Amino acid sequence: MYIVQIASECAPVIKAGGLGDVVYGLSRELELRGHTIEIILPKYDCMRYDHIWGLHEAYQDLSVPWYGATIQCTVYCGWVHGRLCFFIEPRSQDYFFNRGIYYGAKDDYMRFAFFSKAALEFLLRTNKRPDLIHCHDWQTGLVPVLLYEVYQWHGMENQRVCYTIHNFKHQGISGTDVLWATGLNRESYYFDYERLQDNFNPFVINFMKGGIVYSNHVTTVSPHHAWEAHHGEFGYGLGHTLHMHQHKFSGILNGIDYEVWNPEIDLYIPYHYTPAKLKGKALNKKALREKLWLRDGDKPIIAYIGRLDDQKGVHLVHHAIYYALHRDAQFVLLGSPTESAIGSWFGHEKGFLNDNPDVHLELGFNEELSHLIYAGADMIVVPSNYEPCGLTQMIGLRYGTVPVVRGVGGLVNTVFDRDYDEQYLPEKRNGYVFHQTDNSALESAMDRAIGLWYHYPDEFQKLVVQGMSYDYSWNYPGKDYLELYEHLRHK
Asked: How far apart are the first and last CA of the chain?
């Protein structure tokens, strides 16, 4: 099959979050299975050019219709760790992608509307006719709209679109200017509840809704999050639209890259290990303590790795630090605050706890350190308010670091409570799950995990090995996506 991914990120060249990892990881898996994959991306001035091999001009004068005129673009081509990528650079006074940022500009909706239009124009002009176009999140929500309202009438009638939503919270909202800029034009036609009109604000259009309405199939990044978005609050207002299109909506769990996250070959950790030979994990724990000046002793290390924001349950992250210390455990945090207030809060805690030999707070992100924490910690807490998929718990399992998670989104699909899970037999359970958002719920799960570590070490080691036996690589998601693609091809 010939598949084109259209996205605003692809790790490691463009990465602001998990979206970039998914675009790269899925593309790599599909290529390994013998399919032809190309990725179309914006050419940001601030992307990691050192991760691109052989960057060169592939198409010099791509004329993209815009506001009744055209914007000239240059399309560059290069390989990102083996993946063939095309980068679109508009030569415009708007400087759409020369802002020093990926996201956060006031005209983001216009920047990515242009990118969606330019990506389809590039496919049209170069006679690329993929079997499947796979686009992602609100930034490319207009791709299926433009394809089926405009480009199918110009020779692209056989292309099918899979649209994946990674985060329902950010949906892409704009007024009529985007319709006129992209050539969709007909305001009364698109400002219709069955098409692009936002479900709650009748005066704006919603990019993500457009993607849901016009694509051939919609996925989100875990089966449980698909249920939450459809029936609960995590569709952020799009629940009714998902209900109307439920026949083409499903959840496919993300994977993680086992070339990167693998304690048997990880270049960032000093000692390699396997489920059968766990001595290396104990040595990594000692190395982590030495690196972070933690006291040596017979105590478990509990970790948190990730953003510090409301989505991640930052109030519970804070409580976990002090509860771990209360239960005679050590705590290591590696997290980037996303708001100044949270940064100040945790900055104060860092100063307050600075001389405590059982805790280390690292505010920011450090790739090398994250690998060592996964390898050296005994447990990892993931107390998210919502978590569409979650990679942290899957990486933790890979490294034999027992996850303690809140039962939401993809966390439900990947972590099965050692004591209470009804789906799996005890020998298939792999962590601890709590469900409420209060301190007591978190304490209950942490208490069970720490208690097992202290009082039943052989049982804890058995739980570690059971977690490491799970396959959360791209192997199964790759198979699921290919089955979906084949179904869409023959519709």
From this structure: 15
d(CA 271, CA 86) in angstroms, rounded, equals 38
| H helix intervals, 354-474 | 367-376, 392-398, 409-414, 439-455, 457-468
Position 475: which residue type? N
What pLDDT, on the 0 to 100 scale, is given for residue 350? 95
Hey, where are the domains in the chain?
2-255+475-489, 279-468
Res. 230 pLDDT band, cuts 50 70 90: very high
> Going by CATH, does the domain composed of 279-468 fall within 3.60.140.10?
no
Indicate the average pLDDT of the chain: 95
DSSP letter at 61?
A: E
Using only the alpha carbons of the chain, give its radius of gyration.
23
User: DSSP letter at 63?
Assistant: E
Domain 2-255+475-489 has CATH 3.40.50.2000: yes
Quick one: pLDDT at residue 17?
A: 80
Q: CB neighbours of 106 closer than 8 A, spacing ≥ 6?
A: none
Q: Is the pTM of this model over 0.90?
A: yes
Q: Tell me the C-alpha distance between 310 and 319, whole Å.
A: 14
Within this chain, domains 2-255+475-489 and 279-468 share the same CATH topology: yes
